[in-house]
From TrEMBL:
It is a multi-pass membrane protein. It is found in: Cell membrane. It comes from Leisingera daeponensis. Keywords: Cell membrane, Hydrolase, Membrane, Protease, Transmembrane, Transmembrane helix. Pfam families: Exosortase_EpsH, Rce1-like. The lineage of its organism: Bacteria, Pseudomonadati, Pseudomonadota, Alphaproteobacteria, Rhodobacterales. Its main location: membrane. One of its GO terms (molecular function) is hydrolase activity. Its EC number is 3.4.22.-. This is Exosortase E/protease, VPEID-CTERM system. The chain crosses the membrane at residues 54-72, 92-111, 123-146, 158-181, 220-247, 259-287, 299-321, 342-363, 369-391, 427-448, 469-500, 512-532. Residues 429-519 form the CAAX prenyl protease 2/Lysostaphin resistance protein A-like domain.
Length: 533
């Protein structure tokens, strides 16, 4: 059955499609996004120009949708494979159409420099449109002939092409509705007015320039730019709630969730943005402009989003209004959030990330606030102790050997310490750092990166090998990104991931991670080089 699902000619055709789509999207992006050389605002066909510049992002979104559907909805692929096997496309014709369309797309970029293209965009626009249409048609016919597409859409298995089309159109729709939040747009102006109203309601006199959306208090002033509109927070909250709905769909009542909790969360997201800007102005005027700009401005948005996301999790999971009643168990209450193994993998990591946004708000040197981070991490694990007790934490010699190897790799590839001029931290800070580094961080990170991200992508024991490889790659890259060391972090994540895949239990990876961090901490203490921690 697995061999039927990944039929070699069909799978190869799909792989060629994805590789070509991503390569062409990246090429268009690189050729058209050179700083200061091309502005859609300077051409007559503004919306067409913005749509063309958004096209690479649409292709990336669609490709990601196809890959995710392959990973999480394998049954959908059975119908595609059957159609592709019974209705083989005319490869030469479809490839020719696509190459002709790609040629028309790239021709103006080849003939003209970007400043010249800006001046002649109206002449080049028909070539762009014709090229995009032919390239899209050729790609579609490369995957399936027209008759098969019609059969698929009219049948009961249209979910995959509809999701792919929706993800392709999403960036274009966002771009088309950009009048809400761009420069001099409705949401940005409304945000400016709301911040002014907050100070007016508090009885605080401010100076403002409505035309430039500048608000001043004492000698400190800020401009409410497009990035301050709150649209990013609304988008993040929408994505977060969509992902949560997918994960918890068997237990959620979707109508109350989307009709009640979602509007409430989006409204609070925008209200928190108003609060963030107001506090920023107050801090800059009365406390410290440096703290307001360098600390609060950079991290408060993520902090408020994390708190709101955490509140959504708690409300949706614990309020009966948002939970489905399970047949035959009406007399039993739903398991509490703290006993849920899924949230035990996720929420402590959320608190861990929140702690990273708190310290820059109150300390000029964020590392000085590590005791607060350790306290929040400990709180997260204590909250989910009932769920954590159910995990298997056993490990063996191979896990410990791997942990030692990761420590050696980490120390060997460590960047050179600047050294000198910094006073040694106090004993309390060192103890908190050791508690967090050696005991708390390994549990939190392994539960999230391996027991959640890797487990979700890898699938069950009978899943194809490529899913395990994809999960290992994704979790290792995310782990490396968090630690800011791509080579050592990626290799360490791969080692911990392989340990997890051996048993599908977190104990081996956690103990390997603990041992690695303990050895690194010992080396840091021996050298009095706390940059290693």
């Amino acid at each position: 059955m697995r061999q039927g699902l990944i039929s070699r000619p069909v799978f190869l055709r799909l792989a060629v499609f994805l590789l070509a789509a991503v390569a062409e999207a990246v090429a268009i992006r690189l050729l058209t996004h050179k700083e200061g050389q091309f502005f859609c605002g300077n051409v007559n066909a503004y919306m067409l120009c913005r749509g063309m510049r958004t096209l690479p992002l649409s292709v990336i979104f669609m490709s990601l949708a196809v890959i995710l559907m392959a990973a999480f909805r394998p049954r959908i692929w059975q119908s595609y494979m059957r159609l592709a096997d019974t209705e083989p496309p005319r490869r030469i014709l479809s490839a020719g159409l696509h190459l002709l369309g790609a040629g028309l797309l790239f021709a103006p970029l080849w003939w003209f420099s970007l400043p010249e293209l800006e001046a002649r965009f109206s002449w080049a626009a028909p070539l762009f449109l014709a090229g995009a249409a032919l390239a899209f048609l050729g790609a579609a016919l490369w995957l399936l002939p027209l008759r098969a597409w019609k059969q698929w859409f009219l049948g009961s298995d249209a979910f995959l092409p509809l999701v792919a089309a929706g993800c392709f159109l999403l960036p274009l729709v966002v771009e088309a509705t950009g009048w809400l939040w761009g420069e001099n747009r409705a949401l940005t102006q409304l945000t400016f007015e709301a911040v002014s109203l907050v100070f007016s309601a508090a009885g605080t006199e401010i100076s403002s320039l409505p035309g430039d959306r500048v608000i001043g208090l004492n000698d400190f002033a800020v401009r409410v730019a497009a990035g301050c509109s709150g649209a990013e927070g609304v988008a993040l909250m929408t994505v977060f709630m969509g992902i949560y709905a997918l994960l918890a769909r068997p237990a959620l009542r979707m109508k109350p969730y989307w009709l009640v909790l979602f509007p409430l969360a989006v409204s609070l997201s925008w209200a928190f943005n108003i609060l963030r800007i107001s506090v920023l102005i107050w801090l800059g005027a009365y406390v410290s402009p440096e703290l307001a700009v360098e600390g609060f401005h950079s991290y408060a948005g993520w902090l408020l989003f994390s708190l709101l996301a955490f509140a959504v999790l708690g409300i949706a999971h614990n309020m009966a209004f948002f939970q489905r009643s399970i047949a035959g168990s009406s007399s039993q209450s739903a398991p509490s959030l703290t006993a849920d193994p899924l949230f035990a993998r996720i929420v402590p990591f959320i608190l861990f990330m929140i702690s990273g946004t708190l310290t820059p708000l109150f300390w000029e040197t964020p590392a000085d606030g590590y005791p607060l981070r350790a306290a929040l991490m400990l709180l997260g694990l204590m909250l989910f102790w009932p769920a954590l007790r159910a995990f298997s934490w056993r490990a063996g010699p191979l896990d410990w050997l791997a942990g030692g190897a990761v420590a050696a790799l980490w120390l060997w590839t460590a960047p050179e310490s600047p050294g000198g001029g910094t006073a040694a931290p106090d004993l309390f800070w060192i103890l908190c750092r050791l508690l967090g580094t050696v005991l708390l961080v390994p549990v939190i990170e392994e539960l999230f990166f391996r027991a959640y991200v890797l487990e979700r992508l890898a699938g069950g024991p009978g899943a194809p090998a490529w899913r395990r490889l994809a999960g290992l790659l994704a979790s290792s890259l995310l782990f490396a990104a968090l630690h800011g060391r791509w080579l050592a972090g990626g290799l360490a994540g791969a080692v911990f991931g392989l340990l997890y895949l051996r048993t599908r239990r977190p104990g081996g990876a956690v103990q390997a991670h603990m041992l690695a961090n303990a050895l690194i901490a010992a080396a840091a203490l021996a050298a009095m080089d706390f940059s290693l921690l």
